[in-house]
């Protein structure tokens, strides 16, 4: 099994605070982490490899410092890492990102399975996984919560839906995106950490991937950001005073109408 | 140095003669890519994504973003009309479709064009009437036994063909597990833009463009996104963001039936089974009322009191991540950044402190109620109503009072 895991380095939202005066993001001291959903993708790849053997390559597109995220994946047990980094990739929307990653994957050669987290926590689009699959013209299974079986070029996954889940069978190669429920990511081992320090990173630039330059970066992106603004701050309302009975009575009075009307629709 | 950037076609640079060193751009940059050096702004191109937020904020016009002009790939004026993907499951139109039709009607009126739906399935024709009642002028209907249930590939193929033939300028989808997977594939195949989870859609009347506004960074910033040179302009929208179109049973419309030959309906993936979980998954994203429990419950048995309140109110049960991680309740109930994003009319948070990851998943609820014994819990800073107290005492009383009021 040749498995490729696509990961993204994101700011740790736990660290993000809003400056109450200017209502803007305060980024001082914000750590970069591996996108939490991608940790499940790495773990799932490791579990599949443990069963079936093979090789895991982690792939990321981003600035030089995204290498840290790749090294974290190596410390957990991934075999190789590739960083796609080039000024020409700057300003990519999800279309151009999907295209660039797909081109990088083609460069890596034959693969059986691509695993992505269901979405990244900074953009929250969930579009790049299916975008890569569509660019490569391979089948996809999104929101995977369980790998049931992979055997003889066929895989069976459980796909989470709003009502429950679906069991989907797909030929390989294919792409899956995974949700949190699928596993609990392991911690890096000491041996892994040492390996991660020494492991070489392959850098791919725009020139290396036989891409159409018109489809890269801001230029290749159909969507553009016109403006960014901070939403009006939601302010706290009232704390209902009194003993339990009094405060609950006030609350029921305040909510009665909305509860009754919600019940009707 | 910013000046070195001139060789790139798309570029951004600081005009150092105009920069006053006010640091406004440093604070605005969502990517932390601007720092001050010698009282002038300097952009770190390793971090800059060319988003342009700094350009808009600079009061001295000291930042210049050169966006390489992309020639429209096709005659954009040939694209007309607003379309909505009418997602159906087991033949039932999903409620988010009616919400999209509500907003879609406004957009179509602003543009002076028709509003249409794409309806794909098997035996779905009888559902077209419901779409007309909700304001659709046309329904593009594609039916085949192979299209009965949603599958990524055939549904993508059908939509791509319809768009190529009928050329809508706008195409909206629900941000559901189906809509998000489908729209992403369609966008790649058509080479057009797709904006996820829009919370605001409007028409720039001068340019006739769709203004797509969405939250990023867990709702801490909002971005307005355009798709100027590609068509259709596509967006996904979550449940409950827009108001449903009202039913008008006098309305009718036109059905345009299409069928395709060849292998267009073939799918490499096979749907073997559909499993529905019981009431447990009362679809959180569709619920009008959600009662959520967190660590403050103390022990898993106490979720009973949350469930009882939810039952009396006719709502769904949510949970914070820590309650899910403690295995008190399944992951399908988790609200927040790594769980579900919801925007019900009423969200009651019991024993939830309100970490930013949880707030990201529910902060757009109409009314937020917080019940927590810690008066300093962050959840109170955004709650419409708060009660400081032990939830094990407060919630059962609340349930009882509502029972009386609602005569249950």
- What would CATH call the homologous superfamily of the largest domain in chain B? HUPs
Strand content of chain B: 25-35%
Chain-averaged pLDDT of chain A: 91
> Could you say which overall geometry of chain B the principal axes of the C-alpha atoms support?
globular
Low-confidence stretches of chain B: 1-8
CATH 2nd-level architecture of the largest domain in chain B:
3-Layer(aba) Sandwich
CATH hierarchy: architecture of the largest domain in chain A: 3-Layer(aba) Sandwich
Shape of chain A: globular
Tell me the number of helical segments of chain B per DSSP (H or I, 4 or more residues long).
Answer: 10
Give the quaternary arrangement of the chains: heterodimer
Please state the CA-atom Rg of chain A, rounded to the nearest Å: 22 Å
Named CATH topology of the largest domain in chain A:
Rossmann fold
Structure described in brief:
The complex is a heterodimer of chains A (265) and B (408). Chain A is of the alpha/beta class and 265 residues long.
Write structural notes for this entry.
The complex is a heterodimer of chains A (265) and B (408). By secondary structure, chain A is an alpha/beta fold. Helix content of chain A is 31%, strand content 30%. Chain A folds into two domains: 2-215, Rossmann fold, CATH 3.40.50; 235-265, no CATH class. Chain A is built from six helices and 15 strands. The model of chain A has no long low-confidence stretch (mean pLDDT 91). Helix content of chain B is 25%, strand content 25%. In chain B, the strands form six sheets. In chain B, strands 11-15-10-5-8-9-16 form a seven-stranded parallel β-sheet, with helices on both faces. The longest helix of chain B is centred in the N-terminal third of the chain and has 17 residues, at 95-111. Chain B starts with 10 loop residues before the first strand and ends with a helix. At the A-B interface, α3, α4, β9, β10 and β11 of A face α5, α6, β11, β13 and β14 of B.
């Amino acid at each position: 099994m040749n498995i490729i895991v696509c990961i993204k380095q994101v700011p740790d939202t736990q660290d993000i605070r809003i400056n109450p005066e200017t209502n803007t993001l305060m980024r001082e001291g914000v750590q970069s982490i591996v996108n939490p959903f991608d940790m499940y993708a790495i773990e799932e790849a490791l579990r599949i490899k443990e069963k079936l053997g093979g090789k895991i390559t982690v792939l990321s597109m981003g600035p030089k410092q995204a290498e840290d995220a790749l090294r974290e994946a190596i410390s957990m047990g991934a075999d190789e890492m590739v960083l796609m980094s080039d000024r020409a990739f700057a300003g990519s929307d999800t279309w151009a990102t999907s295209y660039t990653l797909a081109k990088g994957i083609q460069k890596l050669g034959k693969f059986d399975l691509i695993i992505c987290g269901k979405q990244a926590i900074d953009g929250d689009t969930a579009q790049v996984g299916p975008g890569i699959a569509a660019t490569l013209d391979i089948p996809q299974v999104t929101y995977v919560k369980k790998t049931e079986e992979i055997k003889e070029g066929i895989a069976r996954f459980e796909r989470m839906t709003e009502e429950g889940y679906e069991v989907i069978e797909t030929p390989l190669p294919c792409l899956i995106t995974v949700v949190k429920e699928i596993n609990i990511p392991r911690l890096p081992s000491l041996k892994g950490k040492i390996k991660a320090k020494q492991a070489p990173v392959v850098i791919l630039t725009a020139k290396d991937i036989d891409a159409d330059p018109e489809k890269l970066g801001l230029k290749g992106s159909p969507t553009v950001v016109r403006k960014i603004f901070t939403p009006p701050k939601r302010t706290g309302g009232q704390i209902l005073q009194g003993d339990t009975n009094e405060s609950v009575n006030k609350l029921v009075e305040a909510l009665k109408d909305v509860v009754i009307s919600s019940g009707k629709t | 140095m910013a000046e070195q950037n001139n060789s790139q076609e798309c570029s951004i640079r600081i005009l150092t003669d105009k920069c006053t060193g006010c640091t406004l751009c440093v604070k605005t940059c969502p990517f932390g890519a601007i720092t001050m050096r010698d009282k002038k702004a300097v952009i770190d191109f390793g971090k800059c994504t060319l988003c342009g937020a700094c350009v808009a904020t600079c009061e001295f016009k000291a930042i210049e973003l050169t966006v390489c002009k992309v020639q429209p790939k096709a005659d954009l004026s040939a694209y007309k009309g607003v379309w909505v993907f009418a997602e159906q499951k087991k033949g039932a139109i999903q409620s988010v479709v009616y919400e999209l039709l509500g907003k879609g009607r406004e957009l179509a009126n602003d543009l002076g064009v028709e509003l249409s739906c794409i309806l794909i399935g098997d035996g779905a024709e009888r559902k077209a009437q419901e779409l007309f009642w909700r304001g659709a002028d046309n329904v593009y209907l594609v039916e085949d036994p192979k299209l009965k249930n949603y599958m990524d590939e055939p549904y993508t193929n059908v939509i791509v063909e319809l768009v190529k033939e009928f050329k809508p300028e706008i195409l909206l989808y629900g941000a559901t597990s189906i809509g998000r997977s489908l729209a992403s594939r369609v966008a790649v195949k058509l080479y057009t833009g797709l904006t996820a989870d829009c919370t605001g859609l409007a028409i720039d009347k001068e340019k006739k463009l769709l203004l797509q506004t969405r939250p990023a960074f867990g709702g801490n910033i909002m971005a307005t996104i355009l798709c100027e040179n590609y068509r259709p302009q596509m967006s996904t929208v979550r449940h409950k963001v827009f108001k449903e179109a009202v039913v008008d049973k006098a309305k009718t419309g036109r059905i345009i039936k299409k069928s395709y030959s060849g292998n267009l309906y073939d799918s490499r993936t096979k749907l073997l089974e559909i499993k529905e979980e019981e009431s447990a998954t009362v679809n959180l994203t569709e619920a009008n009322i959600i009662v959520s429990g967190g660590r403050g419950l103390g022990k898993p048995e106490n979720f009973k009191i949350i469930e009882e309140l939810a039952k009396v109110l006719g709502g769904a049960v949510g949970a914070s991540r820590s309650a899910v991680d403690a295995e008190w309740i399944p992951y399908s109930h988790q609200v927040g950044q790594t769980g579900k994003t919801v925007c019900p009319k009423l969200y009651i948070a019991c024993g939830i402190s309100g970490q930013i990851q949880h707030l990201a998943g529910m902060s757009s609820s109409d009314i937020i109620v917080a019940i927590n014994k810690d008066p300093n819990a962050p959840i109170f800073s955004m709650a419409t109503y708060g009660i400081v107290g032990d939830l094990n005492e407060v919630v059962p009383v609340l349930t009882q009072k509502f029972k009386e009021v609602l005569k249950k």
